[in-house]
Design a protein that fits this description.
Elements lengths: L7 H11 L1 H8 L1 H7 L7 E2 L1 H7 L9 E9 L5 E9 L8 H16 L2 E8 L10 E6 L2 E6 L1 E4 L14 H14 L3 H7 L5
Parallel strand pairs: 3-4, 4-7
Antiparallel strand pairs: 1-2, 2-3, 5-6
Length: about 190
């Protein structure tokens, strides 16, 4: 890694923090406008997430954010954002999403919106649920996903939302690893 480069997980974490309201409106536009209390600040719960899942602090393959979002009802919603930046299939990923969910739910008893943004190049890899079964006991946990590889550049466009530029840039990055090439394709707005 060259000195001026930063890791993908740190880049995603920083962008999500800096543009969180736009991020919410990008993935959940109607809900964000109707339910989120924009007059109050969101709270990033990095410390709480690390305490709940210390294993994630030891790897740089994914960027996880846990965010407390104030709602107009006066309640808080906790949003778990998991950005998968590894470029290969991970059989443990659905179990990890479930582990995050039940640890947050068990410890804090909060409503949880879980979103996995998959940025790998394998269009067939698209986990959406975790399933456990032993004898007559079973459990299925479904979580929301956004598979960047399976989108089109046009589908990623949302006028007046800066996070749209982030998603279009990430889409172009899937097509090349050369930042200079990405800058050229994006009209040098990077």
């Amino acid at each position: 890694m060259r000195p001026y480069q930063i890791s993908r997980d740190k880049l995603w974490k920083g962008i999500i923090e800096d543009l969180f309201e736009d991020f919410l409106r990008y993935f959940y536009p109607e809900w964000a406008d109707e339910a989120v209390d924009g007059s109050q600040n969101v709270v990033f719960l990095d410390k709480e997430l690390t305490e709940l899942y210390p294993e994630s602090a030891q790897t740089t393959r994914f960027a996880d954010k846990l965010v407390q979002v104030p709602l107009k009802t006066g309640a808080d919603l906790w949003v778990l954002v998991h950005v998968e930046v590894q470029g290969y299939r991970d059989a443990d990923f659905p179990a990890r999403m479930f582990t995050y969910f039940y640890r947050i739910r068990d410890r804090y008893q909060k409503e949880i919106l879980a979103l996995a943004i998959l940025t790998d190049k394998n269009s067939r890899y698209h986990p959406k649920k975790y399933h456990y079964q032993f004898l007559k006991t079973s459990l299925t946990y479904r979580f929301d996903t956004f598979k960047l590889k399976n989108k089109t550049e046009t589908a990623l466009l949302q006028p007046h939302n800066p996070f749209s530029i982030v998603m279009q840039t990430a889409f172009k990055a899937l097509q090349t690893d050369d930042l200079a090439d990405i800058r050229q394709k994006s009209g040098n707005w990077l």
